[in-house]
Amino acid sequence: MVFSFVSIARFGLMNSGQDPTSQNSAEQDSAASSSDDHRRSFIATGSAIAMTTGLVASYGTFASMAGRFLFPAGGQRSVGWQFVAAVASWQPGKSLEYTAPSGATVVIARHGEADEAEAFIALSSVCPHLGCRVHWESQNDRFFCPCHNGAFDRQGVATQGPPAKAGQSLKAYPLKIEAGLLYVEAPLHSVGGDAPAAVAQNDPSAQNDSSAPDAVQADAVEKGRLS
Amino acid sequence: MTRLADWINERIPVSGEQLRELTNEPVPNHLRRWWFCLGGTPAYLFVVQIFTGILLALYYQPAPASAYESVRYITEEAAFGWYLRSMHKWAATLMIAAVILHQMRVYFTAAYRRPRELNWVIGMALLMCTLLTGFTGYSLVFEQLSYWGATVAANISDAVPVVGGTLKTLLLGGAEYNEHTLSRFFIIHAAILPTTITLLVIVHIAFIRMHGVTELRFDDDPPNEPRHFNFFPDHITTELLIGLLLMVVLSALATILPATLGAKADPLTTPEIIKPEWYFYVSFRWLKLFSLTFAVLSTGFILGAMFLWPWIDVGLRKLTGNEDISVWIGVGGTLLLIGLTVWEAVVTH
Ligand code: HEM
Ligand code: FES
Asked: Which among A72, A103, A133 has the least Cβ separation from residue B270?
């Protein structure tokens, strides 16, 4: 900014000094005036460039600051590892409904024998098409997305609608096992969602609370609950 | 009295003659037919929107924690709040309908042809701004449709090639819907778009004044009638009458079918039946029919073609030698538009 104002001021001085002298010089001796003219036009060009650069630089800086302001600070959504259940008490083929601190319900199923994270799957209820929430339809044995009629099978693979056309699947949350306990990396916050109290996290009995406002409905887990 | 006139004249040196010159555009006779006044209708409704919008903004609070409650307050407690909110909603609906009808009139009378190409482009920009204003408007209410509509729209912009991700972040004020989102929508809705529309309308009207309205003659025109009538007072009277009529219609609609308040936005549950406002039925159906990439690219292509239509029209007429080619394409497009809208309207999913 300061730079540009300085160059504007200089350019202004140059201009106001220029007119009378250049008129004079036309009538004066040619040798002296031509080198004078030369110097003058050189300075004029130079200051025009300086002014333009100054303007572009200062307004550019201003614009980039405004542009940067448009992107809020710390916008990353927070996720965190949450304890789900002890692996030993979880039989293959069973699933449970886990309520994340954000209030989102995550259906977690065990489909393998091995005591490793790959034996479990935790499906997100966010539709990969345009972000609506899917829900389980037990009569059709599918997850259904009401926004554009997307449908997904038990494993979360799209079977109908635009997500199927694009070959998408429901996102799976990362899982890990530590010291025989299963953890899921799930979102901690949601906008306007009335998140259940965060204390529920580490209370195993709270995980099976089917009164939670669930997206993936309780009958998704009709195969049984852990107790 | 003359002293007062002198006083005013000295400070505002405009003569009555100049004023008449400025406003008294001769209006071609075909504007006596009502469907040629469709351009004035959205302009009038826009004024209604500014007026009612400013009043609503006195109580509205653009934050996820309080938006819904503030709209409930407007609807149920504020004196005549329900009426003003319903006026705002119905005027929005009618405004969009009027812009579409106005554009169809221009299209089917080929009024976009040389030298009026640029005004067609401005008209298209006005259509886009109006649709966006409607969309950002119903996102403010923070009912279920508001939230899911905004989420879906942001993810659509994410699918735009190259700039999509940035566009989405800019719109939502973050990677996803968050506590900054509503204030953004509010500023876009109540400041940026109305200002843009105002500027575009000024240029639009300036162009109309420079080129004059395309003159049309009809077979049933009386042969010896003068071909123009005065903007003032004749045409302005017509416009005033239309304005009054619109007020009556708006009031009736607002009273009989007031704006309602659906369930509050719940980011964890998408309702089983979800539909946008009627003017987005077409794009909603389009999204259901095709994969996202195709839907976005084809929509971009169609909108681009609409913007550049005056030039595409020239090319097509040269290519086919058919002067009425635009009419046939227009009929096809309109039928498609109506077909998809009706389809979306009659099914639940
Ligand atoms: C092009 C003009 C405009 C259109 C098409 C438009 C459209 C809409 C629509 C469709 C809604 C949702 C209505 C509802 O369901 O309640 C809305 C809400 C709202 N609009 Fe506008 N609007 C326009 C201009 C404005 C202006 C200029 C302002 C303010 C200066 C404004 C302020 C508001 C506010 C505060 C709300 C939310 C409160 C409510 O819904 O009652 N609007 N608008
Ligand atoms: S958002 Fe799920 S099908 Fe479109």
From this structure: A133
Q: For residue A191, give the nearest of B64, B274, B291 by CB distance.
A: B64
**Do the chains contact at B148 and A132, CB–CB below 8 Å?**
yes
Residue B21 is assigned to a structural domain of this protein: no
- Cβ A191–B177 below 8 Å, yes or no? yes
pLDDT in tens, B14-63: 887 777 777 666 666 666 665 566 678 899 999 999 999 999 999 999 99
Specify the number of domains making up chain B: 2
What chain A residue is nearest to B264 in terms of C-alpha separation?
A: A192
B348's tokens: 């639940």
For chain A, give the longest Cα–Cα distance.
107
CA distance A58 to A50: 12
CATH code for position B106: 1.20.810.10
pLDDT for the residue numbered A204: 35
Cα-to-centroid distance, A175 and ligand 2 (Å): 25
| Tokens read off for B5 | 């006139």
A79-215 folds as Rieske Iron-sulfur Protein (2.102.10)
The reply to whether B221 falls in a domain is no
Distance B287 CA to ligand 2 centre (A): 9
Q: In 3D, which of A224, A169, A202, A192 has the Cα closest to residue A81?
A: A202
Q: What is the mean pLDDT of each run of 10 residues along chain A (227 residues)?
A: 49 48 50 74 92 95 94 74 89 84 83 87 92 91 94 92 93 91 86 41 36 36 34
Same domain, B165 and B297: no
- Check residue A193 and give its pLDDT: 42
Is B235 in the same domain as B336? no
Complex ipTM: 0.82
Two tokens, residue B248: 């009556």
Q: Which residues line ligand 2 (CB under 6 A)?
A: A 127, 129-132, 145, 147-148, 150, 161-163
Contact state of B287 with A145 under an 8 Å Cβ cutoff? no
Q: Do A44 and A81 meet the contact criterion of CB atoms below 8 Å apart?
A: no
pTM of this structure: 0.81
User: CA nearest A2: which of A63, A61, A48, A49?
Assistant: A61
Domain contains B224 = no
- Can you give the residue range of the structural domain that contains B188? 26-213+229-269
B187 and B94 within one domain = yes
